[in-house]
């Protein structure tokens, strides 16, 4: 009998990520990942206790690719925060199905904690502390996660915007007009334009 092969955590995470990218979060299961690895579901349980542990491996696999090095300390605080947000968007945006998992596993992911630590240092240098700093980080994460989901699930250039732009103007004058303007807004402008609104409010 051949000895069972040994798999590394990175191999397990890569297989789970392949399933997520292809089938979405609903398709992630122990059975699906085992099939991706060419092994039985019971064989997968030799490496992880359950799906939750598998999810944690995937989150760390994705977030581990985010550069958490503090940006140039000589740059303005808002520019440094833009850099940190851009790094997160570039990496996580390549695997949008992982986004919900980053919320439930953020406290277990060393890479997530390192990103937040760097962001908090920048917010502190900007003069935020106590409850205001708590709310600022929470709102920043809320914006980034929501904006990435909108970019991939409901982009301004998508069919949903077209439908809204065709609503009757007598009933939805602002929605129809705004949607007509939104159709010309690109994804980069959408994301970083919204971030600018957030950062201006933060500096007020």
UniProtKB/TrEMBL annotation:
The keyword ATP-binding does not apply. Keywords: DNA-binding, Repressor, Transcription, Transcription regulation. Residues 29-48 bind DNA. PANTHER family: HTH-TYPE TRANSCRIPTIONAL REGULATOR RUTR, TRANSCRIPTIONAL REGULATORY PROTEIN. Residues 6-66 form the HTH tetR-type domain. InterPro entries: Homeodomain-like_sf (IPR009057), HTH-type_TetR-like_transc_reg (IPR050109), HTH_TetR (IPR001647), Repressor_TetR_C (IPR004111), Tet_transcr_reg_TetR (IPR003012), Tet_transcr_reg_TetR-rel_C_sf (IPR036271). This is TetR/AcrR family transcriptional regulator C-terminal domain-containing protein.
